[in-house]
């Protein structure tokens, strides 16, 4: 069997019906990628692409974000032992439970910060933090800026 060069293969590909299909526009590509990677990683993954117990745990976390979420509570809700839950959760998300919960809370806070009528301290408690200093520390470590500065930047750009 003779080998075709890459150039001749490319020419064949252009003449095929599949290659004749229009390419998606830059706008369509941009719209498909509007969500940041971080937001996508926090989205609850569809059934079947991760263990059902982890999907159940994620739904529970998102529904109870403003509550105190302990490892025991979430593992019990998922129907797993704490050690098995930790291992599966880390494999599925790449994060510890605490890291995941903090990221979810910060994402929720980022939306709330855009509401000018709310104080940062109110937002911190609404998304589940027990202290303002803990919230500020987590927010800054995840976003790279303080909640107050983020709010000023967003309103200055509006």
List the helices and strands and how they pair.
Elements: H1 6-15, H2 17-20, H3 26-32, H4 37-42, H5 52-63, H6 71-78, H7 82-93, H8 97-112, H9 120-126, H10 132-143, H11 147-157
Helix pairs in contact: 5-6
Region (Disordered): 1-27
Domain HTH araC/xylS-type: 55-153
Keywords: DNA-binding, Transcription, Transcription regulation
Description:
- Among the domains are: 47 residues; 57 residues, Orthogonal Bundle (Arc Repressor Mutant, subunit A).
- Helices cover 66% and strands 0% of the residues.
- The longest helix has 16 residues.
- It is elongated, with a radius of gyration of 22 Å.
- Helix 5 packs across helix 6.
- The chain has eleven helices and no strands.
- The N terminus is likely disordered.
- It is mainly alpha-helical.
Short description:
With 158 residues, the chain is an all-alpha fold. It is 66% helix and 0% strand.
CATH topology term of the domain at 101-157: Arc Repressor Mutant, subunit A
- Share of residues in strands: under 5%
CATH superfamily of the domain at 101-157: Homeodomain-like
Distance between the termini: 63 Å
Shape: elongated
What oligomeric state do the depicted chains represent?
Answer: single chain
Low-confidence stretches: 1-42
Listing every helix as H and every strand as E from the N terminus to the C terminus, the arrangement reads HHHHHHHHHHH
CATH class (first level) name of the domain at 101-157: Mainly Alpha
Structural class: mainly alpha
Q: Which sheet architecture does the biggest sheet show?
A: none
Number of strands: 0
Calculate Rg over CA atoms.
Answer: 22 Å
Q: Determine the fraction of residues in helical runs and give it as a percent range.
A: 55-70%
Q: What is the overall pLDDT average? A: 78
Total helix count? 11
The CATH architecture of the domain at 101-157 can be given as Orthogonal Bundle
Domain HTH araC/xylS-type: 55-153
Region (Disordered): 1-27
Protein name: AraC family transcriptional regulator
Keywords: DNA-binding, Transcription, Transcription regulation
